[in-house]
């Protein structure tokens, strides 16, 4: 499986063709499972406030006081569906995500189930392959996947909240590294301000589209729910996009606490 994954990414970079690998977790599952399985109140607290923050939501509410929650969720769902249907590979929740005790809230497991179900059903391309949604954490912790694929790209483009260009150049065999800043996950970024939705994701879109060349470029994307959408855009322009997610948090030691705590995921190991 590792060899297969590596060869697919390598081939796309060498041949200069578009490629996208995205991951689906409980956040994406809540979006995909709305409104059948999740109420307005649940997605308001667990998706909209959680990912994008109250300032972004108050901005939407002022524009459209009625129906703004359902409109927001349908907009997010539309972009996720586009992302899934265009992906070459999809990370879905594996068995360990469904372990729980009898006193535990079952909503996260329901969200993972929606991510798994929709990820499999919406991907109508029979050539798409599937891995666990934690695949990049595993690849970053074990082996030289990131170091090896750098040999086949002309440039790495970081699409995420942290500017880690210098760390990448110090520890991976690549000279050209660019950075497209994305507003961080509201809950973990440690500051107030607007999130990617409803407006700022368009700034990221413009930055992606303004790049002069995509062929042979490796885009590492860590941008939450919208990261999947950016991967679809990058593929459509001929770039290779990997939705590495919270691997950035581990590399930068900022953001999601459990990602920061993974001491076996760090960039310096590649330099050694």
Task: Identify the notable features of this structure and list them briefly.
272 residues, alpha/beta, 7-stranded parallel β-sheet, 15 helices, 7 strands
Can you walk me through this structure?
53% of the residues lie in helices and 12% in strands. The protein is of the alpha/beta class. Helix 3 packs across helix 5, helix 5 crosses helix 12 and helix 11 runs parallel beside helix 12. It is globular, with a radius of gyration of 18 Å. The protein starts with a helix and ends with a helix.
Secondary structure layout:
Blueprint: H1 2-15, E1 19-23, H2 26-32, H3 40-52, H4 54-63, H5 68-86, E2 89-92, H6 107-122, E3 129-132, H7 135-141, H8 145-149, E4 155-160, H9 165-171, E5 177-181, H10 186-189, H11 196-209, E6 217-221, H12 224-236, E7 240-243, H13 247-252, H14 257-260, H15 268-271
Parallel strand pairs: 1-2, 1-7, 2-3, 4-5, 4-6, 6-7
Helix pairs in contact: 2-6, 3-4, 3-5, 5-12, 11-12
In short:
The protein has helices at residues 2-15, 26-32, 40-52, 54-63, 68-86, 107-122, 135-141, 145-149, 165-171, 186-189, 196-209, 224-236, 247-252, 257-260, 268-271, and strands at residues 19-23, 89-92, 129-132, 155-160, 177-181, 217-221, 240-243. The protein has 272 residues and is α/β, with parallel strands linked by helices.
């Amino acid at each position: 499986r590792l060899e297969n994954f590596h060869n697919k990414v390598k081939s796309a970079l060498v041949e200069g063709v578009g490629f996208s690998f995205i991951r689906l977790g409980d956040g994406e599952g809540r979006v995909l499972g709305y409104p059948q399985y999740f109420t307005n109140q649940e997605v308001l607290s667990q998706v909209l406030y959680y990912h994008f923050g109250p300032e972004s939501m108050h901005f939407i509410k002022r524009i459209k006081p009625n129906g703004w929650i359902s409109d927001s969720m349908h907009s997010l769902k539309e972009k996720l569906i586009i992302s899934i249907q265009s992906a070459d590979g999809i990370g879905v929740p594996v068995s360990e995500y469904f372990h729980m005790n009898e006193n535990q809230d079952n909503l996260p497991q329901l969200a993972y189930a929606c991510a798994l179900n929709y990820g499999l059903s919406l991907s109508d391309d029979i050539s798409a392959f599937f891995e666990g949604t934690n695949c990049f954490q595993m690849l970053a912790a074990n082996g030289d996947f990131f170091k090896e694929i750098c040999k086949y790209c002309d440039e790495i483009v970081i699409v995420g909240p942290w500017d880690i260009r210098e760390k990448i150049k110090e520890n991976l065999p690549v000279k050209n590294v660019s950075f497209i800043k994305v507003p961080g996950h509201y809950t973990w970024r440690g500051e107030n301000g607007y999130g990617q939705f409803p407006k700022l994701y368009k700034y990221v879109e413009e930055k992606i589209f303004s790049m002069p060349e995509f062929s042979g470029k490796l885009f590492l994307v860590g941008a939450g729910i919208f990261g999947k959408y950016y991967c679809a855009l990058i593929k459509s322009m001929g770039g290779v996009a990997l939705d590495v997610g919270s691997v950035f948090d581990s590399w930068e030691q900022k953001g999601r606490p459990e990602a920061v705590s993974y001491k076996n995921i760090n960039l310096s190991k590649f330099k050694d």
